[in-house]
Amino acid sequence: MKAILDTNPLVSVLLKPAGVSGQIFQRWRNGEFELAVSPQTLLELTDVLHRPHIIRKYPISEKDIVDHIDVLRKFAEVTPGSLIVSEIPDDPKDNHILAAAVETNCIYIVSGDRHLLNVGEYQGIKILTPREFLELLQIANKVVDGNT
User: Which of 14, 51, 84, 133 lies 20 to 30 Å from 57, alpha-carbon distance?
Assistant: First the structure.
């Protein structure tokens, strides 16, 4: 199973590691699913994590930010970023997530962005909140372990 995470859950991974997105990230690190990210998401993630209000509010260092981005670059599938999609007219900057999911044959997009969530599904790719995706992973893990 392969999923692409939007910027907001990837930010949450670093800011609240014990939260839902942090749990998803840990499950990826444990090999429970494949992760894809887009080049645009990595740029946006870097920008968001360097915002002054984020730095003031959360105890993250430059090293934490660099390490987080490096893990994604090294171990997640980074999409080519060549496909152009124009599905979300209300927020065109979200279209790169749809394009990246198609480029990497993802089954799921994980996002808290209402513009993406309102699409619901794109070319057979389901768009879920982090909580919905975590629940799906928990169910899949039970099936694999034979606990159903």
Answer: 133
Tokens describing residue 49: 């994590």
- Distance between CA atoms of residues 112 and 98, nearest Å: 14
Domain containing 34 equals 2-145
CATH number (domain holding residue 61): 3.40.50.1010
pLDDT at residue 148, as a whole number: 47
Domain tally for the chain?
1
3-class secondary structure per residue, 2-68: EEEECHHHHHHHHHCCCCHHHHHHHHHHCCCCEEEECHHHHHHHHHHHCCHHHHHHCCCCHHHHHHH
Q: pLDDT tens-digit profile of 42-79?
A: 999 999 999 999 999 998 999 999 999 999 999 999 99
